[in-house]
Amino acid sequence: MSILKGACLIGQSGGPSAVLNASALGCIEAALKSDNITRVYGAAHGIKGVLDDRLYDMNLEDPAELKLMMHTPASVLGTCRYKLQDFLVDDWEYKRILEVFKQYNIRYFFYNGGNDSMDTCSKISSFLSQNNYECRVIGIPKTIDNDLAHTDHCPGYGSAAKYIATSCMEIYRDAMVYDTGSITVLEIMGRNAGWLTAASAIATYKGIGPDLIYLPEIAFDMADFISDINRVYEQKGDVLVAVSEGIKDKIGTYITSYFADDTKEKDVFGHAKLGGLAANLANYTNAKIQAKVRGIEFGLIQRCAAHVASETDVNEAYMAGADAFKAAESGETDKMVAFVRGPGPEYTCHTTLVDLVEVANVEKKIPIEWINEAGNGMLQPFIDYALPLIQGESQMPIEDGLPRFAHLKKICTR
Amino acid sequence: MSILKGACLIGQSGGPSAVLNASALGCIEAALKSDNITRVYGAAHGIKGVLDDRLYDMNLEDPAELKLMMHTPASVLGTCRYKLQDFLVDDWEYKRILEVFKQYNIRYFFYNGGNDSMDTCSKISSFLSQNNYECRVIGIPKTIDNDLAHTDHCPGYGSAAKYIATSCMEIYRDAMVYDTGSITVLEIMGRNAGWLTAASAIATYKGIGPDLIYLPEIAFDMADFISDINRVYEQKGDVLVAVSEGIKDKIGTYITSYFADDTKEKDVFGHAKLGGLAANLANYTNAKIQAKVRGIEFGLIQRCAAHVASETDVNEAYMAGADAFKAAESGETDKMVAFVRGPGPEYTCHTTLVDLVEVANVEKKIPIEWINEAGNGMLQPFIDYALPLIQGESQMPIEDGLPRFAHLKKICTR
Predict the structure, then answer these.
(1) In this predicted complex, what is the ipTM?
(2) Can you tell me the distance from the alpha carbon of B245 to that of B243, in angstroms, rounded to the nearest whole number?
(3) Topology adopted by domain A6-145+307-360+391-403
(4) pLDDT digits (tens, 9 = 90+) for A253-266
(5) Which of A328, A361, B150, B238 is deepest in the core (most CB within 10 A)?
(6) Which of A179, A303, A403 is the closest to B174 by Cβ?
(7) Does A174 participate in catalysis according to the annotation?
């Protein structure tokens, strides 16, 4: 182990999750305990906070309040969706980052996010090393989308999956109380990978979940969709359908764009902004099938429902942060922490390290062989994969019958 | 106590809640234990099951499985939205009900629902007594809307309120993670009474809830709405707004109808069907204020989220069912069980009885003096009222990391 002394900086990036703060806590607590760390900083809104020299001093926080990050959803430090330029094109941002790193003697940098964030992390790592600034850079995975490559699964996914499966069971119960028949279309997040929507199949596995499930991995066909629904409606009288927001037809056109009356906005990463699909598909279905049809969009709550987080996910998220620090302290850099599932029937999970460049900008999709032949449901291998990830009920501290989230002081260094 | 022996029938009616089954369980368990009860039946889909002679034999159910009703949302027996005709106009339905009651010797009838259901209950009670058929009829209150008169609050409200307040806290955390500013419009259920939307103020009381709250009790003005949002946006950079689906302007027009391009459908009770308001208000706001604006509709899940039910609500719902049976057994009829809040600072709640006709078709609104002068927020008396109702975390049985709901056999009597 090569000893490197200096300050530690952690940033959170991208869309929040129920356990993003648990990962940050794992890293922060480990750093606060380490003799090699002179100071622990949190970047306000990820890399933007570095560019703006807005760092919070974590040493000044009350440890008990920090502890509450374990069950606080979203991001206590703030995140960003900020894409750094390629430094071969223009390196002013990197020079600025280096300047701030030097100013605070930051020798450990942790960035917690999805594949876009791993790209950011990788570029910073390259620039620093090319400029002979010794700094250990480790990515901590996070994404409810579960689409990071080279890791068995991502922190955040288990909790979102637990929320989705639980809510599907409750909505199934609710939607079918009348004897008048009903068709309910649930829209679930997931732009290009169907992991979240597939999680609804765990409810089906428990006997009360969607009858039909459509993922972005399978070309979507409106006529098949209506005929599938019609068949189940004729058989059962009630239909629950789960669709991914990112379903596309066979030429790759987002189904949501069928209903758009103007060119859709794009986010800074060039992803099309999606939404409103459930309502549109419900209207379309209603025009084709004489029935009570309703569309429900799970929306934001699926990524921040700490109140129904998976204990497994919370603990693993913490472990990812803690192990990221451990890896950096032992000399590793330019890596992302990844999860490895142990062999055998009993679920176990430990961390390993993968090269950042291997993960950056790569999306992992659901194996096609886990989807049924008709392309409208999940097979047992998916259940076997997902079920262990939602186990355990996170014991969130409660005050006045409501969650007691962390209130950090967030004292700026300047 | 005048002794009456015979069968007992319970029906569930109207929109489901997280605790409707807890009330049914309270009644069913008390009836199963009583020496005066020869058989306990559950009506399939409320009064429709009586008209169709579709009754389930509750004596044939596994008691352990029945017990799970305590934490099973929606309606295990099925509900209906079926309005009986006035028997002075046409009494065939009442004759049919009497016939079925005689067939099964039903001498105890319990109907679990909201104000429409209490109307049904009251009419049946009158008809039976006018036809000299001795039967004790007791209504068990239920409505997440909390709009029943002559009761401090309604079973179902506390759990929906807890879901709403919890989710508001989580969404507040989530919506504000970026430093780019945002306006989030949450649409919450409640057609004419603002109790559910007001529950979001409990999150505000805890420091992380809506900045602005609009209820149907206060005339809604689009210009004020935009100027309120603009003011908070200028001050804070992020705005969370809660609106009731039922907000109306000063001449009583539903705001949702501003955005409708065709005449809105009505339900069988003549209520206008609502929905899509959040998205429409978000679009409207976006046209007026240069900001990232998003609309979120809480939707069905707010009335069936058993996973975050209030323990107080679950226990009180059970008590309402059990006390309904006790009242009937002791000779009461033509009454609804109501809740009375005990005096003093410590919250206590017991049941009393009110005449069905007093409750039928009456809607209880939020006292105007509990709403702030600007008409966009709640005052402390509302918090004092609502906070005790969301206390305690319901301990739902879990299997495979997901709720284990009741699976009844539902064996039909014929």
Answers:
(1) 0.95
(2) 6
(3) Rossmann fold (3.40.50)
(4) 999 888 875 444 54
(5) A328
(6) A303
(7) no
